[in-house]
Design brief:
By secondary structure, this protein is mostly helical. It is built from 13 helices and no strands. 74% of the residues lie in helices and 0% in strands.
């Protein structure tokens, strides 16, 4: 069965049209895929439009080097290098300030203010760099999901399947749009806070006290009026780069997980109805039509498993860092919300805390969705009319059921599974750190 899908099993090159002359075993599947008109829009492509825009500003790409022209590659890399330089100049300066502050016994609150900013900046670096290193896999993943949707369009169109597709797409929009709005609000609050404090100070003392969003050491005086506007804008753009790099990579993961879940649900529906309701006659499904339909279901199932494997290969390392730093981020950000007395800073870090919680929650939530939907195909096999079929058909369904009982999973490089149980463990660890830090600060 695996031999029929060699053109999507390779992780060394992106998914592309196979050479049917040299690979006749995949010719039948590709012939069905090619029957869909190129002008027909895919739901997956519609969902990728927003992510593609974010990738463009972040200096990232959904295509591998072989699929881009030289000029496109140069543009993408220059944009990424510009963003990378802007961000890491500030990360180096803020890290140096943090090291000096620890040695000089600086205000504890100021240290806890900078530490989560550095941690999430490093997370943005790791997520974006790992995506660049895995561009070929990302392109293969996208083409694999497209091919699943194209193949699925060749099946019988029924109202229930359309409802599954629309419900999941609507859910995805309801998640991504509020997350994008919250991210924009966080960027705005970090950017506007210094202006609020400067205005309040000016109204009280009639003096201008220049402030910046973050405390960073520069090789020049950043409060010199000649440099101050440029430094302020530079720091704001660094905040934008962090959020772009983090969010667009996560949004791609969420979208792919939702579409894989959609196709697992559609496969479950097809399996449940693969044996027609024509009474308990053992030979009603022994004709060639059942074999053709069952083979197509198995092929789609294999492609969904392949897509889930590609997500695991692309994201497992960044997820590991995500899990390692999430407890620290939630702990320090929550501590700032409780310990700081200035309302603008409390609001800023409260929004930052909510964003961090939602980011790790949805990472675990979508991983859990994909895992449960893949395992649910076994229930679809059990709910079918296997008892009315020929024994050979029952054996085939049993093989599918056995494979479905091994669900597709996302992991943090194999150390932990990405599901809702992992989220509860992160929250438990964060609460323990928070209590310890709060006790240390109040004593």
């Amino acid at each position: 069965m695996n031999r029929k899908l060699t053109f999507i099993e390779s992780d060394k090159k992106p998914f592309k049209e196979p050479n049917v002359a040299h690979e006749p075993q995949v010719g039948h599947l590709w012939a069905r895929i090619k029957t869909i008109m190129p002008s027909e829009k895919l739901s997956f492509d519609e969902s990728l439009k927003f992510i593609t825009t974010l990738f463009r500003f972040g200096g990232l790409s959904l295509l591998g080097n072989k699929s881009r022209s030289t000029m496109e590659t140069v543009k993408v890399r220059l944009m990424y290098l510009f963003n990378f330089s802007c961000l890491n100049c500030d990360v180096i300066g803020e890290t140096w300030w943090l090291i000096q502050s620890l040695g000089e016994g600086e205000n504890f609150l100021a240290i806890t203010f900078s530490a989560p900013c550095i941690a999430i900046s490093m997370m943005a670096n790791i997520k974006s760099l790992l995506l660049i290193f895995n561009e070929e896999r990302v392109e293969e993943l996208i083409e694999c999901i497209r091919s699943i949707e194209i193949t699925e369009k060749r099946t019988e169109r029924v109202k229930e399947k359309e409802e599954i597709m629309e419900t999941e797409k609507y859910f995805l929009r309801r998640v991504l749009v509020p997350l994008a709005i919250l991210t924009a609000i966080v960027i705005f609050t970090f950017s506007i806070n210094p202006c609020i404090f400067m205005l309040a100070h000016y109204l009280k003392t009639n003096e201008v006290n220049l402030l910046l969003p973050f405390t960073i050491i520069y090789p020049f005086d950043p409060f010199n009026i000649m440099y101050y506007p440029a430094v302020y804008i530079h720091q704001i753009w660094s905040v934008c780069v962090v959020n772009l790099s983090t969010c667009c990579v996560d949004y791609l993961l969420f979208t792919c997980c939702v579409y894989i879940k959609i196709h697992f649900r559609l496969i479950k529906y097809d399996v449940e109805n693969i044996i027609p309701k024509q009474g308990n006659v053992s030979n009603t499904v022994t004709d060639g039509s059942f074999k053709s339909t069952f083979r197509e279901v198995v092929e789609r199932h294999q492609m969904c498993i392949r897509a889930a494997d590609l997500i695991e290969q692309t994201y497992s390392k960044s997820i590991l860092y995500n899990f390692m730093t999430s407890s620290l981020l939630i702990c320090l950000t929550g501590f700032n919300v409780v310990a700081v007395k200035d309302i603008p800073i409390i609001v800023t870090f409260l929004l930052f805390l909510i964003m961090n919680l939602l980011q790790i929650f949805f990472l675990c939530f979508f991983g859990d969705l994909m895992m449960r939907s893949s395992a649910d195909i076994a229930n679809g096999v059990y709910n079918s009319r296997w008892y009315a079929a020929d024994p050979t058909v029952g054996k085939s369904l049993l093989i599918l059921l056995t494979r479905a009982q091994k669900p597709c999973k996302l992991t943090a490089l194999g150390f932990a599974e990405v599901n809702l149980m992992a989220f509860t463990r992160i929250l438990s660890t964060s609460w323990s750190y928070f209590c310890l830090l709060n006790t240390f600060y109040t004593q």
